[in-house]
């Protein structure tokens, strides 16, 4: 989980059992259990997956209770672990993307997540197919109209507090709130109710990477038992619910799920990250009306003052390099002011230099400039544009593709706003056979075109990991 999130939580002395011993099934036993799980999934009519921090450790996000977990090290008085990359740059794991394929195939009906990393939604799971019991660090919600806003930056608060942004619905405009629970916050009914419903309907609940310690969340999988359903637990540590499970697998979640997908002859799809930004050009005539003063600004599509987490700098140049001086913008907000005659038309060339962790070094967007701005506004089919970008990125296996998805014109002050979608990362999962004849081991493959760089039993709480 996010180390920043752990620091924002209210202090409590009892965070449950930490420093739990890890167990590993032997290679032969593990393979037998993987095949048994694959057969159970294949026969299932209503599969529900219940996930914890253990599915995100391979994404560079530390867990809480493992030998090197955040709370374990805190309890031992040791320094906290260092995340391998910023929280907002974490990419879905093998397990996340395998769940996407299972959902698309119709086999997986619902996901219940205790994680606040947002990786299930980022991976491509539909919002209506996932209950995020403890919230999402990248989600804001409107308490008045219920609108949800999924961001590309980590929301600054936790504990259901007001943020610095407002609902974009002109009929509402209420202040937004974060969605991440603090220790004593109750589980939200709009997440808990569908989770309970699907667990009751489930003939198989697959628990992945969770110690199943905290009530009431840990009791959700048990609801399938009344209807004859079964529970399978995949976790490195023992859990209080192991005796209720039909199958317990002690192994790395990614390795188990990769083995299941291989047995089912299902391919784990690649992950393609697509980010949005807006380009705003504002114009005003000089007093003698011979010149136009204009400003170009590159900003987050989520809010003007929100950070652009994946852009390090912007190089601005012009199609007529003889007349116009180039510039390099290195600080947010990225903006440039210029003055030109009203009759001139040219192209503004923006070279976006990505920060470390992106799948390519840069991309370029060309913006036409003309004083006589067309008043046409249009909204392209955003989902179609994004899907086309995703398919092209997978086909070419490279990043940087971009396309406009929206254009607006405001007459006073004269402003043109365009929203662009950009492929900023791609990650594939390719299986390689191990030389010892063991199950196929997933190999991560990245775009190479640039640098990528329980509390105690005596005390129950309302919710937490």
UniProtKB/TrEMBL annotation:
The active site is at 134 (proton acceptor). Residues 434-465 are annotated as: Disordered. Residues 27-267 form the Deacetylase sirtuin-type domain. Its main location: nucleus. It is found in: Nucleus. The keyword Coiled coil does not apply. One of its GO terms (cellular component) is nucleus. InterPro entries: DHS-like_NAD/FAD-binding_dom (IPR029035), NAD-dep_sirtuin_deacylases (IPR050134), Sirtuin (IPR003000), Ssirtuin_cat_dom (IPR026590). Keywords: Metal-binding, NAD, Nucleus, Transferase, Zinc. Its EC number is 2.3.1.286. Pfam families: SIR2 (PF02146). Transmembrane segments: none annotated. Its cofactor is Zn(2+). GO terms for molecular function: histone deacetylase activity, NAD-dependent; metal ion binding; NAD+ binding; transcription corepressor activity. Zn(2+) binds at residues 142, 145, 167, 172. One of its GO terms (biological process) is negative regulation of transcription by RNA polymerase II. It catalyses: N(6)-acetyl-L-lysyl-[protein] + NAD(+) + H2O = 2''-O-acetyl-ADP-D-ribose + nicotinamide + L-lysyl-[protein]. Residues 452-465 have a biased composition (Basic residues). Belongs to the sirtuin family. Class IV subfamily. This is NAD-dependent protein deacetylase SRT1. It comes from Jatropha curcas (Barbados nut). The lineage of its organism: Eukaryota, Viridiplantae, Streptophyta, Embryophyta, Tracheophyta.
């Amino acid at each position: 989980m996010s180390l920043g999130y752990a620091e924002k939580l209210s202090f409590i002395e009892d965070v449950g059992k930490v420093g739990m011993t890890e167990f590993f099934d032997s290679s032969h036993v593990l393979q037998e259990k993987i095949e048994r799980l694959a057969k159970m999934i294949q026969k299932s009519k209503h599969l529900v997956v219940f996930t914890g921090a253990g599915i995100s450790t391979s994404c560079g996000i530390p867990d809480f209770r493992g030998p090197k977990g955040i709370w374990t090290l805190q309890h031992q008085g040791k320094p906290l672990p260092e995340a391998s990359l910023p929280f907002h740059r974490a990419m879905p794991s093998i397990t996340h993307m395998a769940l996407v394929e299972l959902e698309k195939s119709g086999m997986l009906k619902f996901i219940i997540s205790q994680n606040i990393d947002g990786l299930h939604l980022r991976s491509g799971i539909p919002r209506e197919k996932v209950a995020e019991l403890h919230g999402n660090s990248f989600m804001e919600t409107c308490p008045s109209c219920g609108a949800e806003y999924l961001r590309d930056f980590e929301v600054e608060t936790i504990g259901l507090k007001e943020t610095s942004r407002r609902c974009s619905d002109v009929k509402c405009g209420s202040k937004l709130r974060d969605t991440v629970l603090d220790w004593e916050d109750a589980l939200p009914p709009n997440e808990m109710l569908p989770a309970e419903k699907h667990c009751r309907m489930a003939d198989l609940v697959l628990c992945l990477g969770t110690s199943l310690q905290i009530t009431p969340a840990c009791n959700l999988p048990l609801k399938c038992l009344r209807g004859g359903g079964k529970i399978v637990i995949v976790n490195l540590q023992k859990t209080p619910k192991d005796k209720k499970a039909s199958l317990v697998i002690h192994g790395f979640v990614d390795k188990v799920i990769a083995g299941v997908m291989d047995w089912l002859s299902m391919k784990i799809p690649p992950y393609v990250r697509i980010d949005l930004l807006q380009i705003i050009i504002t114009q005003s005539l000089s007093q003698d009306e011979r010149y136009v003063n204009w400003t170009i600004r590159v900003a987050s599509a989520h809010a003007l003052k929100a950070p652009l987490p994946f852009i390090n700098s912007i190089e601005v140049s012009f199609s007529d390099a003889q007349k116009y001086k180039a510039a390099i913008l290195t600080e947010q907000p990225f903006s440039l002011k210029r003055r030109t005659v009203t009759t001139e038309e040219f192209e503004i060339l923006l070279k976006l230099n990505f920060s470390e962790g992106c799948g390519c070094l840069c991309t370029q967007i060309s913006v036409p400039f003309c004083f006589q701005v067309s008043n046409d506004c249009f909204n392209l089919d955003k989902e179609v544009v994004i899907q086309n970008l995703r398919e092209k990125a997978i086909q070419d296996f490279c990043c940087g593709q971009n396309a406009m998805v929206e254009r607006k014109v405001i007459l006073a002050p004269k402003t043109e706003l365009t929203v662009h979608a950009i492929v900023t990362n791609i990650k594939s999962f390719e299986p390689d056979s191990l030389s010892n004849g063991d199950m196929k081991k997933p190999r991560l493959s990245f775009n190479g075109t640039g640098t990528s760089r329980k509390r105690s039993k005596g005390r129950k709480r309302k919710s937490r990991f």
